[in-house]
Automatic annotation (TrEMBL):
Tree of life domain: Bacteria
Protein name: Peptidoglycan/xylan/chitin deacetylase (PgdA/CDA1 family)
Signal peptide: 1-20
GO cellular component terms listed in the entry, alphabetical order: membrane
Entry-linked CDD domains: CE4_NodB_like_3
């Protein structure tokens, strides 16, 4: 999320619920941490995405949306099932995928997400019980998988729910704040000095990364909140076409439910960073909860990729002395940005593109979101502007390496 600061009332209310342990979905009771997200002032409602209607309908299908990146078109089907429905979701998912491809011949991929209807709370609510990514070229593989003939590597089934634990510990004081930092005044003064040094020098400093050196002819392209079905294949396809690498700061619960998209990121030469497990603002939370949010996400990503996580971005850009300390203890560099065009507020493609182009600079860190349609629409043009200016769009890790090389 962006640099805007919001009231934490809704988020803290949700955090009264217990957290789930890694590798298992949160319990299906009440609102979950991060289920209610603050809305930035001035946010405009995004235009509705086009929808497909199957004829005859499949009664479990809630909606099927589709979107194009100008080259390929992908659909996302949300399926809600009752407690008395079948336990093996593969045949239902296969029917939805096949029928969706039949309904629209231009589709390159269909993503199917199945939720328990009784607990469904939208994308930020309880995790789905089954997900699958079905490229058109893999449809027959998925159909064979649905009847148990062969394995399929682009599907996920939720494991049984695990035990949960409640938050413990004291909440850190937040007496003063500036641009996302929350803490007591003495800490605030020190942070202002540390930030000034880090921004002047560029590169990683004191466990923080605000910008790279202006002598580096590169800028880091980053996406927060990933992965989202339908959007992720479209973003990755554009980055491949433009020969651009990026860092995806993933929400742990999203990575948990869509592990095949995390594999796609790595196979595309991209980098996976940590954006907490439930997408919650950290400074007001107990230390144990902060550590859990970061550790759970590290564990999920490392289990999927086999690679350590190096970079962390705090939701909303909100951080404190303790969050920095905990991140460092877990081997994470807290990463910020120089260019936030606020794509999630839907300012319009023209405004968004002008903001991106105007703020592009050597050593910069660009903040986008993988599920912002307007950002998707201007991404290719932005990449070409960067190329004409001689600025390579790279991962955070690549920018840090180049920064060290020029010192």
């Amino acid at each position: 999320m962006s640099r805007f600061r919001f009231s934490a009332v809704l988020v803290l209310g949700a955090l009264s619920q217990p957290f789930a342990t890694p590798q298992n979905p949160p319990p299906l009771v009440g609102p979950l941490p991060g289920q209610v997200q603050p809305v930035a002032p001035g946010t405009r409602r995004a235009p509705s995405l086009p929808q497909l209607r199957l004829v005859p309908p499949i009664r479990e299908v809630d909606k099927i949306e589709y979107l194009s990146n100008g080259f390929i078109e992908v659909a996302s089907a949300i399926v809600l099932v009752g407690a008395d429905a079948r336990k093996d979701w593969r045949p239902l998912a296969a029917e939805v995928a096949r029928r969706t491809f039949d309904a629209r011949s231009s589709l390159e991929e269909v993503d199917v997400t199945i939720y328990d209807k009784a607990s469904y709370g939208g994308f930020g609510g309880p995790l789905p019980i089954f997900t699958a990514s079905v490229p058109r070229a893999r449809l027959n593989d998925f159909l064979r998988f649905s009847i148990g003939e062969r394995p399929y590597d682009r599907a996920w089934t939720a494991p049984p729910a695990a035990k949960t634990f409640k938050m413990t510990g004291a909440v850190e004081p937040t007496n003063a704040a500036v641009r996302g930092f929350l803490g007591e005044r003495a800490d605030l003064v020190k942070q202002q000095i540390d930030r000034a040094v880090a921004q002047f020098r560029g590169g990683e400093h004191g466990g923080m990364f605000f910008k790279g050196s202006s002598r580096v002819r590169a800028a880091a392209l980053t996406f927060d909140d990933a992965p989202h079905p339908m959007y992720m294949p479209l973003v990755l396809d554009l980055l491949r076409r433009e020969n651009v690498q990026a860092t995806f700061f993933v929400i742990g619960r999203n990575a948990e439910a869509y592990p095949y998209f995390i594999h796609d990121m790595i196979e595309g030469g991209h980098e996976v960073g940590n954006h907490t497990y439930h997408h919650v603002r950290l400074p007001r939370l107990p230390d144990a909860t902060v550590r859990s949010e970061l550790q759970m996400t590290n564990d999920v990503v490392q289990r999927i990729t086999g690679l350590p996580v190096r970079y962390f971005r705090p939701p909303g850009g909100e951080y404190s002395v303790k969050t920095l300390q905990i991140a460092r203890q877990l081997g994470l560099t807290t990463t910020f940005w120089t260019d936030d065009p606020a794509d999630f507020t839907n300012p319009g493609q023209t405004v968004l593109e002008s903001r991106l182009v105007r703020r592009l600079r050597p050593g910069g860190l660009v903040l986008l979101h993988d599920n912002a349609p307007e950002g998707l629409a201007v991404l290719a043009r932005f990449a070409r502007v960067a190329e004409t200016r001689g600025i390579s769009l790279v991962t955070v890790g690549q920018l840090a390496e180049q920064d060290r090389a020029v010192r």
